[in-house]
């Protein structure tokens, strides 16, 4: 296999953050020696998550076996996902904001047509449904555990307890038509064909769309980690990957 240099477009502070967490993890385990230092393991993990490079390619570049590369990355992802904030923490922090934005996104996965639970009729592809909460400026605050793509957004939001949590805290939430019937503090556009809506309703929907559109920035932030653009791993690992990416993002923006 040919080996070539490649860049990872993340800040050095993120690398230092992950390396420090891995050193703490190694001390807790009592690890004495590894093929890669904590810093190199952190760089390996960032290259996988940010660039989406496969294990064999990364293993060759870092001078380790493919199995070792997989094990090191899985370990780092586990460490990071354990640090991801819980919904309750995010809601407490969001209570100081004027409102939050809520939307769902589909993370495409490599699945065959027979895997119906993972097929999203809305997106016409297989994937995993992840709910995203953003602040009024479109900054990513939280990403939910992943559910099969066939799960509708409003059902996913209810299942994760998002609607109850936001309503209980009295936080206004702007969402799209996929959340019709949510009630509580969730605000959705008026339903119906454009021509059947009154002038006031049309104006309200235009205003709603302008505000809600900012959540796309949060989704773009999540998918700037290229591994999440096309997942080829077991669906049972996707939640940990999403939570790991969330932790890294919050570490870089904190």
Task: Give a quick precis of the structure.
The chain is an alpha/beta fold. It has ten helices and seven strands. The chain has two domains: 12-81, no CATH class; 87-223, no CATH class.
Structural summary, described in words:
The protein is an alpha/beta fold and 254 residues long. The protein folds into two domains: 12-81, no CATH class; 87-223, no CATH class. Helix content is 47%, strand content 12%. It is built from ten helices and seven strands. It has helices at residues 12-29, 38-51, 55-62, 66-81, 87-94, 153-160, 162-169, 199-212, 215-223, 238-253, and strands at 100-108, 119-120, 125-134, 140-143, 147-148, 173-174, 186-187. Strands 1, 2, 3, 4, 5, 6 and 7 form a seven-stranded mixed beta sheet that branches. Helix 1 crosses helix 2 and helix 3 (55-62) crosses helix 4 (66-81). The longest helix has 18 residues, at 12-29. The two termini are 39 Å apart. The model has no long low-confidence stretch (mean pLDDT 92).
| Portion of residues within helices | 40-55%
Helix segment count?
10
The stretches of 5 or more residues where confidence is low (pLDDT under 50) are none
Sheet-strand content, in percent, reads 5-15%
Report how far the terminal alpha carbons are from each other: 39 Å
Largest beta-sheet characterization? 7 strands, mixed
Count of folded domains:
2
> How many beta-strand elements?
7
Structural class: alpha/beta
Coarse morphology: elongated
Estimate the mean pLDDT confidence. Answer: 92
Gyration radius over CA: 20 Å
Helix/strand order: HHHHHEEEEEHHEEHHH
């Amino acid at each position: 296999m040919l080996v070539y240099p490649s860049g990872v477009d993340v800040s050095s502070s993120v690398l230092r953050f992950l390396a420090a967490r891995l050193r703490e993890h190694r001390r807790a385990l009592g690890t004495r020696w590894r093929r890669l230092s904590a810093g190199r393991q952190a760089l390996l993990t960032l290259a996988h998550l940010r660039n989406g490079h496969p294990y064999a390619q990364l293993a060759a570049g870092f001078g380790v076996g493919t199995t070792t590369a997989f094990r090191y990355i899985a370990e780092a992802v586990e460490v990071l996902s354990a640090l991801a904030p819980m919904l309750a923490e995010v809601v407490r922090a969001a209570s100081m904001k004027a409102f939050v934005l809520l939307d769902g996104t589909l993370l495409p996965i490599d699945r065959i047509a027979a895997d119906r639970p993972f097929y999203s009729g809305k997106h016409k592809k297989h994937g995993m449904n992840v709910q995203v909460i953003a602040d009024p400026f479109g900054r990513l605050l939280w990403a939910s555990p992943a559910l099969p793509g066939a799960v509708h957004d409003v059902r996913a939001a209810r299942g994760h307890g998002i609607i109850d949590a936001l309503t209980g805290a009295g936080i206004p939430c702007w969402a799209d038509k996929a959340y019709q019937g949510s009630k509580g503090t969730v605000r959705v556009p008026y339903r119906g064909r454009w021509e059947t809506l009154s002038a006031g309703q049309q104006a309200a929907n235009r205003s709603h769309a302008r505000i809600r559109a900012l959540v796309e920035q949060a989704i773009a932030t999540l998918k700037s980690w290229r591994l999440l653009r096309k997942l080829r791993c077991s669906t049972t690992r996707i939640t940990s990957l999403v939570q790991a990416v969330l932790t890294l993002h919050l570490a870089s923006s904190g």
